[in-house]
Amino acid sequence: IRIHRLIRMQAQPGALAIGPKDVELPLEQLVGYLGSFEYPFVSSDLKAREGFEWPVRSFIQHSVPKRGTVRIGALTLARPEAIADRIELLEPQAAWAAAMAGVQPATLRIVMVHARAERIRDLADTLSPQPDLVIGVSDSVPEPPAAPDHSPKRGVPVVWSGTRGRSLTKTLLRRSTSDPEEIVITDYKVVQLAGSQTAKGAMEHRDAK
Question: What is the spatial order of strands in the sheet that 133-137 belongs to?
Answer without folding.
Answer: 59-64, 68-75, 108-114, 133-137, 157-160, 149-150
